Known about the structure:
Keywords: Endonuclease, Hydrolase, Metal-binding, Nuclease, tRNA processing, Zinc
CATH superfamily of the largest domain: Ribonuclease Z/Hydroxyacylglutathione hydrolase-like
Oligomer: single chain
Order of helices and strands: EEEHEHHEHEEEEHHEEHEHEHHEHEE
Cofactor: Zn(2+)
Shape: globular
Number of domains: 2
InterPro entries: Metallo-B-lactamas, RibonucZ/Hydroxyglut_hydro, RNase_Z/BN
Distance between the termini: 13 Å
Family: Belongs to the RNase Z family.
Strand order of the largest sheet: 6-5-4-3-2-1-16
CATH architecture of the largest domain: 4-Layer Sandwich
Helix content: 25-40%
EC number: 3.1.26.11
Number of helices: 11
Structural class: alpha/beta
Number of strands: 16
Bound molecules: zinc ion
Radius of gyration: 22 Å
Amino acid sequence: xxxxxxxxxxxxxxxxxxxxxxxxxxxxxxxxxDCGEGTQRQMMRFGTGFSxxxxxxxxxxxxxxxxxxxxCQTLDFNDREEALAIHTPPGTKSAVENLVGVTGxxxxxxxxxxxxxPGGIALREEEYEVRAxxxxxxxxxxxxxxxxxxxxxxxxxxxxxxxxxxxxxLFSELHEGNAVELDxxxxxxxxxxxxxxxxxxxxxxxxxxxxxxxxxEAADDADLLVHEASFGExxxxxxxKTGHSTARQAADLATRxxxxxLALTHVSSRYAGESDRLAAEAxxxxxxxxxxxxxxxxxxxxxxx
Length: 305
Ligand SMILES: [Zn+2]
Ligand SMILES: [Zn+2]
């Protein structure tokens, strides 16, 4: 699973940082979290590809959604046929439909807008789900957690052979969790040859928010927490007033959630050229905090390698 930071800036873009967008690629599928103005050009610049299947919006402030009409139009020019699903906070469906349809042009592919429920499941796929959780901003907002299912335990081939199981279809039966009967009548149970289920990965994206308990819960043991860090400690009062977080607050939260890594994003344009300071403030509290630049990508390995 690969995460690309397409836009790491706050409400106002700078030459270095575009407005919010995050791309997650998993097994050939592309999920986009927020879509600030210019996101489609960031996708081109950083080579993430365009075939997004789902867009997850954290809230309807312009710096998170104004890239949608342009992206949807380009997908149409590319002769896209498959549906695009847009997931959005409660009560915002018609605003998103208006935004996407603002030019009056109707794309040749279906666009489906779904309102998500905080605490509910926004998307369920075969091997993972995306859950929505409540955040605390100045408007209806949610964060998202991409949570993979547990994977099957490791299959102990040597042990299976010792027990007399012939290599072939019986191996897969056992790995699928079914007992098998050998020619001599012996029954082999899956527990004898398959290890315990192995955890999947978890990525959490907050969008704009003050620090919240719901985020701590959602980010429990996350492999990557992408938390907004609009401000440094020098503007902590402003962060609270405007529904944002400081880098240090994000780091506190990552510590409480026992997350493995913390990416700080949505950096205010006030910190242009000195964003290292925010990363340093976070690292005083949480070692594995970093502040990505636009275009940075990281691979998220399985916890057990
Ligand atoms: Zn924002
Ligand atoms: Zn906002």
